[in-house]
Amino acid sequence: xxxxxxxxxxxxxxxxxxxxxxxxxxxxxxxxxEEYGGSxxxxxRFGAQKINLHEVxxxxxxxxxxxRPGTLDLCxxxxxxxxxxxxxxxxCGVAVERGPVSRIGALGDITSVYCRDxxxxxxxxxxxxxx
Length: 131
Description:
The protein has 131 residues and is α/β, with parallel strands linked by helices. It has helices at 18-29, 82-91; strands spanning 10-15, 32-36, 41-46, 49-55, 73-78, 98-105, 108-116, 122-127.
C-alpha cells in the first residue's frame, strides 16, 4: 500500500542553551513552552504544531546525523501584517535581517520578514494578508 504525507506534526531543533532558546520563542513569537515525557523534555507549542528542543550534547535518540544548532531555516505563518511583525521584533530587541519582502508560500503569495533566533537559525515570518 502506498502512503502520502498529510502534514508536519513536529520538528526537532538542536540548540546551544535550551532555556535561552525556549525563552526567546516564548517572548518573541508567543509560543507556549511545554515540559513532557517525564524525562525533562521541552517543546514549544503553537497552533496545531510543536518544536521539540534538544540541547546540544543531550540530544534524544534517535536524532539527525548532523544535529547542530543554527542549521534550520523555518517559516512561520503569522496572522498579522508584516509591518506589525517588524514592530514586535523591534519591541523585543530583535534585528530584522530582511523584509518585508514578497515571496511565494505553500498556498500562494506571501510577504515575509526575516530574523534570527539565539542560535542563528533563520526565522521567516510570513503573512498571507494582502494590502
